[in-house]
From TrEMBL:
PANTHER family from the UniProt entry: METALLOPEPTIDASE M28 FAMILY MEMBER, PEPTIDASE M28 DOMAIN-CONTAINING PROTEIN
GO process terms (BP): proteolysis
Example GO molecular function: metalloexopeptidase activity
Residues annotated as domain PDZ: 308-386
Designated name of the protein: Peptidase M28
Source taxon at top rank: Bacteria
PROSITE patterns for the chain: PDZ, PROKAR_LIPOPROTEIN
Gene3D superfamilies in the record: 2.30.42.10, Zn peptidases (3.40.630.10)
Pfam family, one: PDZ_2
Length: 407
């Protein structure tokens, strides 16, 4: 009887192994993060905190070391640029309106000289608010593709890289505050928990859950290191790659590019559910996510023995904003809460760069308009058209400078 029982157990386990699919764990992670009970994972809410705890638990299960300022967590505080919506319950709001968000960080320490950062934001829009494209009644925005998908692929890569490719260390980061302006990644770059001088490159994944039938995969930042294009194409036998050289874009890789770190950002494209309550877990291509994870793993493996990668500045291929006829060609510092608009990055061959504006400059006047915050900057910018000339007043290291600029 004992032998028969063992035989039945063996056959059962064999059957389970045969039915196992690697994308199942990816689906499990997405399903948890994109569940209604997390109420859209808006930064500063209970849903965000529950998501952060889940990611920290997964890091621990995978054997990653804590790399935050408090265990796996790195807290950052900010004041919303607009008044919080009445339906939002911020559990971390202070009396002065300051909200606390949380990054989650796990580390694989291979005692190597260089570190690779692999990241994805985990926050979303809660019940919608300003970022929502939905026009109906109040509803939870679960953000399955944006960006539970990126977090799930990041966790999948962590499981693959544990005990392998030991020529580098690996820092896995789940950012919060991305939807409010890259707040978490911006904060980490300015308050790192590791030596960022030893960072070889950064990989970001944002919306990687909707791989289409034609297998189109966009990769941004391909020009930020000379080796990226070669490696991307040498391992590509499954995707229709769309390569964008610029290191600047609307996701967390931008924060690292502006710190002179090579970046690659993976993205499967926009869709009709973007920033709507209909971005749910049942619409994701989980097999495609596993394929993307395998592709990124092959790229990391190929780059494993290249030491610290060379960094290269790129031209910004995106317009600063589609609502304006012109742009300065700068990346604003969304964490800045002083008077004016502080520049966090300057794009090559754009008006700001040609005029001599620099990272760290605080714009306090544009033309005839005083600049006190982001909104006044946007209003001032909207009156100009291509070919116009004006004057920009900036504060730079204690000095006030008036600079001529042409759009």
């Amino acid at each position: 009887m004992k032998k028969i029982s063992l035989l039945v157990l063996f056959i059962t386990l064999l059957g389970c192994k045969k039915d196992y699919k690697p994308e199942n764990k990816i689906k499990e992670d997405v399903t948890f993060l994109a569940d209604d009970k997390l109420e859209g994972r808006q930064t500063g809410t209970a849903g965000e905190q529950e998501a952060a705890a889940y990611i920290a638990k997964r890091f621990k299960e995978l054997g990653l070391q804590p790399s935050g300022t408090s265990d796996y967590y790195q807290a950052f505080s900010f004041k919303p640029k607009t008044d919080p919506h009445s339906e939002v319950s911020f559990t971390t709001m202070a009396e002065d309106g300051t909200i606390t968000g949380t990054n989650v960080l796990g580390y694989i320490d291979n005692k190597a000289d260089n570190t690779i950062i692999i990241g994805a934001h985990y926050d979303h829009l809660g019940y919608g608010g300003d970022g929502s494209l939905y026009k109906g009644e109040k509803a939870i925005h679960n953000g399955a593709d944006d960006n539970a998908s990126g977090v799930a692929v990041m966790l999948n890569l962590a499981s693959k890289l544990k005990e392998t490719n030991t020529a580098n260390n690996y820092l896995f980061m789940a950012f919060s505050g991305e939807e409010m302006g890259l707040l978490g990644s911006n904060y980490f770059v300015k308050n790192p928990t590791i030596d960022t001088k030893a960072v070889s490159y950064m990989i970001n994944m944002d919306m990687v859950g909707r791989l289409k039938q034609d297998s189109t995969l966009a990769v941004y930042g391909t020009g930020t290191s000379p080796i990226f294009k070669q490696v991307l194409n040498s391992h590509n036998d499954k995707f229709k790659l769309i390569e964008k050289e610029s290191g600047v874009g609307p996701s967390d890789h931008t924060s690292f590019y502006l710190a002179d770190i090579p970046v690659m950002h993976f993205f499967t494209g926009q869709h009709e559910d973007y920033h709507k309550p209909s971005d749910d877990s049942d619409k994701l291509n989980y097999e495609g996510m596993e394929t993307i994870s395998n592709y990124i793993f092959e790229i990391i493996t190929d780059l494993n023995d290249n030491g610290k990668l060379a960094f290269r500045k790129t031209k910004n291929e995106s317009e600063e904003t589609p609502r304006f006829k012109v742009g300065l060609g700068v990346v604003p510092d969304y964490m800045f809460d002083g008077k004016g608009m502080r520049i966090d990055g300057v794009s090559e061959d754009k008006p700001a760069q040609k005029a001599g504006l620099q990272k760290g400059d605080i714009v306090i006047k544009l033309g005839d308009s005083a600049i006190v915050d982001m909104m006044s900057y946007m209003r001032a910018l909207s009156v100009f058209k291509e070919g116009d000339s004006t004057n920009v007043r900036v504060e730079r290291k204690g000095d006030t400078l008036d600079i001529d600029l042409k759009f």
